[in-house]
Every structure is written in C-alpha cells, then in structure tokens.
Amino acid sequence: MNRKQYPTEGVRIAASYRHVWGEEEHIPGINENTNDVIADFQKNHAYYQISGVVENYITVFQGMSMGLYGEIYLSNRPFYSNFTASILAARQFQPTLESSLLFLPSYRANNYLAFGLRNITDIYKSIELRLETYVFQPQKLIRQDPESMLAYYGEPFQDIAYLVSASLILKTPVGPVSVNANYYSNYKKAFTIMFNAGFYIFNKWALD
C-alpha cells in the first residue's frame, strides 16, 4: 500500500488462524428487578478464528482509481454468559475510519462475508474525494432474548447491512486531514459526520 491511511495504490492480502483457550468469569452482582443475588458464572471456552482480507487498487486513468475490498471471518466461538459479553466478543466489520471508532452491534458476527468498492478521484493538487460502499452479510446475526438477557442466533443470511462513506481528504506532510459523511443501514444513528486530522493508531485486541 502506498499510504498507511486512505491508500490509493497497491495490493494487500492478509490471512490468519488462531485457536483460543480461556476461562470466562462473570460476577453479575444483584438483579435490580428482584434484588436477588445472581450466582457467579465460570466456564472454559475453546474455539478457532479464521480471517482473510483482500484489498486491491486499480488505476482507471490519471487522477482516478478504484479499490476492491473483500473480507471473510469464520469462527465457532460459543456464546458467553449473556448477550453483552457475546456481542462484545464478536468480530466487527469496520472497513472505514469512523466504523473502527464506533460500537456497531448489527455489524458484528461470529461468521460473515463482506465486500466493498472504493472510488478515489483527485479534485485539486493534494485534495481527493473518496466514495466507498460496503455490503456486510453475517451468517447469523447475534440477537438478545429480552427476558433471559441471553444471546441467540437469528435466521441465517437474513440480516444484511450496508455502509456508505464519502470523504474529502487533504494530504499534508504530517498526515491526512479529512471530513467524512457516513451512512449505516442498521445503526441507531444512520447518518454521521466526522472530522479527522492526522493518523489513528490502535492497539491490536488480544483476541482479534
């Protein structure tokens, strides 16, 4: 890739396999509805995680390029003691800068496929316009039972989600400055706007 953030050239292919062993411990406290003390929960878990990402940029003509993005994630991770723990542990599809900063339950799953198209056009000197569209297809979306608060799977291949992003980017010697407008089809706040200056740096999650 020619850039750490907002690339326009190059190819990235990444694949990983991980097997996880661990113990879940949940100390819930007191049920606020009944004032009953809920028993602590402990359970051993073992599961695999397989992921793959392909990202490729093609120059259409001078000043315009197209990007192709594909991602697959497979895991037999079991549910944890409640819905919140289960959805937090699930992998999130986050191909854009803003989506990596948000908690998006409808874009999280233990197994999913995702595809995207990116169009990058030079507007003037160091200014470019970036249009991105993605489709996220979970095998089964993780849902919450309102009574037991436990997680359960929805119907297979039913809960497709879309993500659209438009970014105006100024390239500077110290990093990009950008304004992003985003649309999430399955999020409580469908339209968002974000301003960013410089690079975002994230620590890798231990179980990712």
Descriptive keywords:
single chain, 208 residues, mainly beta, two-stranded antiparallel ribbon, 1 helix, 3% helix
Describe the structure.
It is a single chain. The protein is mostly beta strands and 208 residues long. It has one domain. It has 1 helix and 12 strands, in the order E-E-E-H-E-E-E-E-E-E-E-E-E. It has one helix spanning 83-89; strands at 11-26, 41-61, 64-75, 91-92, 108-109, 112-124, 127-138, 142-144, 151-153, 161-172, 175-184, 191-197. An 8-stranded antiparallel β-sheet has the order 1-2-3-6-7-10-11-12, with no helix packed on it. The chain has a two-stranded antiparallel sheet with strand order 4-5. Strands 8-9 form a two-stranded antiparallel ribbon. Strand 2 and strand 3 (64-75) form a beta hairpin. The mean pLDDT is 90.
Along the chain, the helix and strand elements come as: EEEHEEEEEEEEE
Number of helical stretches of at least 4 residues: 1
Q: Please tally the β strands and state the result.
A: 12
Give the integer mean of the pLDDT values. 90
Unreliable sequence segments: none
What shape does the CA trace take? elongated
The fraction of residues in strands falls at over 45%
Q: Characterize the biggest β-sheet.
A: 8 strands, antiparallel
Report the radius of gyration as a whole number of Å: 20 Å
How much helix, percentage-wise, in residues? under 10%
Structural class: mainly beta
* Biggest sheet strand line-up: 1-2-3-6-7-10-11-12
End-to-end gap: 22 Å
Number of domains: 1
